[in-house]
């Protein structure tokens, strides 16, 4: 797990580390590695990750606020049962915010940004053709990151990043039909951006997030993320 260099203040390094740990635990909850009701003890997680207990405790406190875990008296933390309706609400918000960012990006994206977006899209095309799911996920993230940066809207981006904590960060490209769907829908978003059509960029992004997040929700359901019995 990478941390900042020695010139970075210790408190900031620890905060970065706790954020990385939280992201790791979040991903393992969303991919079913940890089940609702499962007890997670700080010392065991720290040993597994090769870090001290302090950043692990900070990570779990953040996850508690987000609703992924709850505190268990003298027993560390317990994985919370996740509610599908909450995720539906969050994914609806994700579609709205992402669409607004795409709209603004289409109106103000530089030629350099457009070229970079096109390059990333072509890399995704190659990754889909080769069945390289890891690269599909990486290029998908980069495609959206370029658009979000070009939108130049710090508050909307902050909201988006908050919601993205509830979206699986890995394995989503392996959902049947997802990779091809991502590529096809990115094509429409890219064309709207190239043509400087903000309204069309909004519509294309909204449909993209609506369809892709529905697939993610259904996959989480199939994995039992929302319906597993809670361990006593």
Biggest sheet statistics: 3 strands, antiparallel
- How confident is the prediction overall: mean pLDDT? 89
Structural class: mainly alpha
Strand content: under 5%
Following the backbone from N to C, one meets helices and strands in this order, namely HEHHEEHHHHHH
Outline the fold blueprint.
Layout (H helix, E strand, L loop, with lengths): L9 H21 L8 E2 L1 H8 L3 H14 L2 E4 L3 E4 L4 H25 L2 H20 L2 H19 L2 H11 L13 H17 L3 H26 L9
Antiparallel strand pairs: 1-3, 2-3
Report what the structure shows:
The chain is mostly helical and 232 residues long. It folds into two domains: 10-79, Arc Repressor Mutant, subunit A, CATH 1.10.10; 84-223, GntR ligand-binding domain-like (Four Helix Bundle (Hemerythrin (Met), subunit A), Up-down Bundle). 69% of the residues lie in helices and 4% in strands. The chain has nine helices and three strands, in the order αβααββαααααα. The protein has helices at 10-30, 42-49, 53-66, 84-108, 111-130, 133-151, 154-164, 178-194, 198-223; strands at residues 39-40, 69-72, 76-79. The chain has a three-stranded antiparallel β-sheet with strand order 1-3-2. Helix 4 (84-108) packs antiparallel against helix 9 (198-223) and helix 5 packs antiparallel against helix 6 (133-151). It is elongated. The chain starts with 9 loop residues before the first helix and ends in a 9-residue tail after the last helix.
Relevant terms:
single chain, mainly alpha, Arc Repressor Mutant, subunit A, Four Helix Bundle (Hemerythrin (Met), subunit A), 2 domains, 3 strands, 69% helix
């Amino acid at each position: 797990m990478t941390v900042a260099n020695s010139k970075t203040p210790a408190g900031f390094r620890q905060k970065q580390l706790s954020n990385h740990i939280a992201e790791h635990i979040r991903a393992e909850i969303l991919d079913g590695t940890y089940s609702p009701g499962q007890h997670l003890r700080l010392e065991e997680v720290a040993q597994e990750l090769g870090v001290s207990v302090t950043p692990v405790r900070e990570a779990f406190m953040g996850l508690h606020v987000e609703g992924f875990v709850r505190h268990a008296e003298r027993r560390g933390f317990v994985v919370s049962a996740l509610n599908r309706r909450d995720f539906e609400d969050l994914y609806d918000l994700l579609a709205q915010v992402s669409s607004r960012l795409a709209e603004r990006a289409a109106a103000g994206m530089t030629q350099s940004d457009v070229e970079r977006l096109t390059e990333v899209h072509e890399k995704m095309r190659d990754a889909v053709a080769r069945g390289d799911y890891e690269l599909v996920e990486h290029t998908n993230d980069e495609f959206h990151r370029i658009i979000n940066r070009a939108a130049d809207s710090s508050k909307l981006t902050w909201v988006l990043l908050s919601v993205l904590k509830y979206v699986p960060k890995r394995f989503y490209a392996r959902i049947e039909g997802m990779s091809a769907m991502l590529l096809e829908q990115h094509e429409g978003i890219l064309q709207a951006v190239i043509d400087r059509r903000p309204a069309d960029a909004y519509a294309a992004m909204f449909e993209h997030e609506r369809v892709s997040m529905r697939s993610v929700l259904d996959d989480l359901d199939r994995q039992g993320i929302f319906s597993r019995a809670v361990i006593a």
